[in-house]
Amino acid sequence: MATRTKEREELSFTVIDAIAHKHNVQPGAVIPALQEIQDAYGYVPPVAIERIAENIGVPSSEIYGIVTFYSQFRLEPVGENLIKVCHGTACHLNGAERIAQAIAQATGAEEGQTSRDGRFTVERVACLGCCSLAPCTMINNEVHGRLTPESISKIVSHVQEVQELAPAK
Amino acid sequence: MPWETDKKNGSWVVKVGLASCGIAAGGQRVYNALKADLIARGIKNSVELRRTGCMGMCYSEVLVEVFPALGKRVFYRNVTPERIQRIVNEHIIAGNPVTEWIIPADELDSLLSKQRRIVLRNCGIIDPESIDDYLAAGGYKALDKALHSRSPQEVIDEVTRSGLRGRGGAGFPTGIKWGFARKSPGSQKYVICNADEGDPGAFMDRSVLESDPHSVIEGMLIAGYAIGASEGYLYVRAEYPLAIHRLEIALDQARERGLIGESILDSGFDFSISIRQGAGAFVCGEETALVASIEGKRGMPNFRPPFPAQSGLWGKPSNINNVETLANVAWIILNGAEAFSAHGTEQSKGTKVFALAGKIARGGLIEVPMGISLKEIVFDIGGGTSEGLDFKAVQMGGPSGGVIPANMADTPVDYDSITKTGAIMGSGGLIVMDESACMVDVAKFFLNFTQDESCGKCTFCRIGTLRMREVLDRISRGEGKEEDMDRLEELAQGVKKASLCGLGQTAPNPVLTTLRYFRDEYEAHIQEKSCPAKKCQALITYEIITEKCPGCGLCAKYCPVEAISGEKKKPHLIDPDKCIRCGLCMSMCRLGAISVH
């Protein structure tokens, strides 16, 4: 998944149109097409909603209705790193709120926000399905389990350090 | 024993559990380290390193199973890359198992002796990315048997006779459901596998898909043959990338081998399967909403009848089964209805898979015969609570289910007995709670979830749950009124009666069961303005125990609101006016110097 913000600058109609065309022939293609758009850009840009509507031949309000119905879709670009804080039952019982607090401390972003420097987007999710390792959190598609506020703070600063050391892409 | 040995004679087999839990615990790193180590020692050819799925003992991840050339197989638990060298050196090379890292035999025995594995028959045993492994374990033999020696009606009769009921939660008899779809007129029919496991605290379907994807595919093929369908959809939630990945691999392999496609096994039966990713809406677990979602619409439920069996996907007859239901099918066809119905109770046949989590010592994926008591699950299999506190309750069925208190732990696990308690069997999430759980908080937690996930179609579900949430919020803030409990019950009945689908009809269950069994806790919040479990933030205060505080400053460093102050190496103080009661300081303190009242 593209979580790097740079790519949002490179919105190109060709990519969007190619995705829309690919799904054009299938009935019920809107959701898979939107999923591919989000995979490519990290979010669903408003312009993509218009293009898909045109390509598939439905009103854009209908597409917008779908995008806002499903929690998977984002209408805002994400930061360089995407953190999903699990608030499933097992995580809730094992202190997910404290983990969320520690992440907010470490990143400067509360749940539902992107940090000012654009490094982190923090999302609240219903369940990652790794309940035996509760509390857990997903950072860029990798699940970290058996967390404590201290360990998650360390993991977040480690992500920061590694990226600061890496040459800019 | 549920895990049969499958090693080749004379060689060592080492398996690493690589389902999501294992990977999250560092399983891939362990696998890579093992591989590198075996290569470096030049014993790669005499030791077969294999990937497998969920072994079920998630509390011990990363798990590595070692089958010696001679002697007994063992499970190493909490394996890290650093431990690999010693395991290889001492066990594989010198022949002396590293006993302190092995799961003791008595623990394994209490964990496994009450389990019976039908759905999980291959989980943690075969390589989920290898169709040859599945075939070697008897895979696709049931499909062959159904296609060549059973008529579709005979397949349906067999499944009906087995007593298999829908494992997604509602418990409708599977064979009867198939019969409806078969009888519906029409040449185009669909089989849909519901893998939109949205309950928080449930991971059964994910584990099955990640560990044994072919068993679900085979179940779909048999269902397709039985009802006369030629197309199938696997509706998997997008939050399960590994399950989707392994399903894609499995589908490709099955296509290559002619197990999916035209005239499967030369029988003249055609069937294709495609994957649809659920985009994150809990309500899509409901059949009609799921159908709407596959059709590319907002996933909102519709009035039934017509049932999907009459008019489902694209208006055609459709049969929708959950992952676990389908994973049972091949076993039933191969072993016969009687072998299946030999397990379980009069009304609930077979086994049930549970995701055991929460404050439990041995959390993981288990499969038990129906009729086993909750006590046996929590204590014998699960090993009791995890942090030494008293067992308080189990929560079954997630947001649609309810809480069953410790004093009812003798309740047998079957559809009817569980329903009588006010909870539901549900899809298999079983969350154990100890004394640290506040039941008002638990009710609020689930209601928040259903309120968020309500699609908004029915007024009672959309607004009724919001009003209930407001009442619960006020109770947990210590601002509850005497009449609030009655008000909650009244609203709950309204939401149950006036909602179209299962989401709304069951949304009040967590509130109703906590009110029924833990009324005293509600009363404490309302009358005494206190939270007995010390959970509700507005009703608690954190304090530093002066005698225990060495003044390390760690709590002050992490306090998000700078409410903690003090000189270095001297006891610190919390300013109650600044404190937001997040409890971060308590988690951080290594000396237990922070108390909560």
Q: What's the count of strands of chain B? A: 17
Percent helix of chain B: 25-40%
> Numbering strands along the chain, what is their spatial order in the largest sheet of chain B?
10-9-13-11-12
Order of secondary-structure elements of chain A: HHHHEHHEEEEH
Percent helix of chain A: 40-55%
Strand content of chain B: 5-15%
Distance between the termini of chain A: 16 Å
What fraction of the residues of chain A are assigned to beta strands by DSSP?
5-15%
Q: What's the average pLDDT of chain A?
A: 85
Poorly predicted regions of chain B are 1-6
Unreliable parts of chain A: 1-9
Number of helices of chain B: 24
**DSSP E strands of chain A, number:** 5
Provide the structure class of chain B: alpha/beta
Q: Describe the largest sheet of chain A.
A: 5 strands, mixed
Q: What shape does the CA trace of chain A take? A: elongated
Q: Report the principal-axis shape of chain B.
A: globular
Radius of gyration of chain B: 26 Å
* Distinct helical segment count of chain A: 7
For the largest beta-sheet of chain B, the strand count, sense and barrel status come to: 5 strands, mixed
Strand line-up in the sheet with most strands of chain A: 2-3-1-4-5
What does this structure look like?
The complex is a heterodimer of chains A (169) and B (597). With 169 residues, chain A is an alpha+beta fold. Chain A contains 7 helices and 5 strands. In chain A, helix 1 (13-24) runs antiparallel to helix 2 (30-41), helix 1 runs parallel beside helix 3 (46-56) and helix 2 runs antiparallel to helix 3. Chain A is elongated, with a radius of gyration of 18 Å. The two termini of chain A are 16 Å apart. With 597 residues, chain B is of the alpha/beta class. Chain B contains 24 helices and 17 strands. Chain B has a 5-stranded mixed β-sheet. The model of chain B is unreliable at 1-6 (pLDDT under 50). Chains A and B meet through helix 2, helix 4, helix 5, helix 6 and strand 5 of A and helix 1, strand 9, strand 13, helix 17 and helix 24 of B.
